[in-house]
Amino acid sequence: MTRRLLILDDDADFAISTSRALALEGVECRIAPDGASALALLEVEPVEVVLIDIRLRHEDGTELAARLHARHPGLVMVIMTAYASVDSAVAALKAGAYDYLRKPFFLDELMRALERCFQLVELRAAKARAERELALMRQIEATSQLAAGLSHDFKNMLAVIRANLAVIEERLPAQDGLKPYAGDALDAALTAGELVTRLMGFARQPVLSPEPRDLRLPVRTTASMLARTLCAGMRVECDLPGHPLLAPVDPGQIGTALVNLLINARDATDGRGRAQIALRHVWRGGDYARLTVEDDGPGFDAGGLDHALEPLFTTKPEGTGLGLSMIQQLALVSGGDFRIGNAEGGGARAVLDLPCLKPCTGPDQGSGENM
Ligand SMILES: Nc1ncnc2c1ncn2[C@@H]1O[C@H](COP(=O)(O)OP(=O)(O)OP(=O)(O)O)[C@@H](O)[C@H]1O
Ligand SMILES: [Mg+2]
């Protein structure tokens, strides 16, 4: 995570030398000489921590700290004060500052204080992520229960409707004006049957296969199957690692996830675009298999980015809005995660990370394949 700090101090020499020293410690610094420029900078720059001198020449630093806190409550503030002004330090802490340092201080004192601040920022981000995932899990669970309850009975009723329609359609003479109506009704009943089957698939919780499997196989098989059929008008490229990538996941679920992503790519590009699939080992404090699918369509719009992982969210007339949330469900129960976003070129990008075994090979050459 990038560590970004704003130094709010009208002592330019101090601010510049501190920012140079902190850059060597991996902290990206911005400098503002007064409150107005600090507030303007915070509107456009993502900064998590601010170091404020409360003894500014033309402003009351304590009052400024209170204003910054009111405007950006998530900002973690460290105030700097002279030895004699402990009272004002207490006032600044009351104004929302997280810590304070007495000037002059050594770099390692500053680094220790900043370390605590950045840890707080990371903890908050992790908490927000966990809350988002929990909310999604709840939505997925509620939808699963609804789907499980409805789909079983609905499927039986549909079977009766389909059987009766088939008899009617078959018995109507070819020239009868009602025959096309019966045919349309039968087609609609078949489509409804497919929808129910998808809902039942959603209601079924993904099962973790106890035995780790090489993920290259389901990815390659699914990609080439779709390249020949549903995505035949597209350029489907598949980049697989040169060594086995073993993960304790049902290969069928990886295949289904990839089908969902490729069909989304096809829909986004009117069936004529490009889909790039990549499978890679990544280290994120643990071993993960990363499946990425990127297309060259228009990408997610703002509403799509915010809601596409929610079950039943769809912008397609025929969509069920279950594709991405099924992948999200697989990621959550497997201890991985699933993210969507837009690639730099503008197309959509989906990234599924699943815990895997450490690959036992040398450097990975990879294998780019056109399907
Ligand atoms: N590759 C993509 N490019 C742009 N938007 C996308 C892409 N993939 C998904 N979306 C957006 O996210 C929404 C949700 O996708 P999701 O796959 O969950 O459901 P769906 O495709 O609408 O229906 P289905 O359940 O049949 O998959 C889509 O309706 C679309 O608006
Ligand atoms: Mg879809």
Automatic annotation (TrEMBL):
The keyword Transferase applies. Its EC number is 2.7.13.3. Residues 4-118 form the Response regulatory domain. The modification 4-aspartylphosphate is found at D53. Keywords: ATP-binding, Kinase, Nucleotide-binding, Phosphoprotein, Transferase, Two-component regulatory system. CDD domains: HisKA. GO terms for molecular function: ATP binding; phosphorelay sensor kinase activity. It catalyses: ATP + protein L-histidine = ADP + protein N-phospho-L-histidine. This is histidine kinase. It comes from Paracoccus denitrificans (strain Pd 1222).
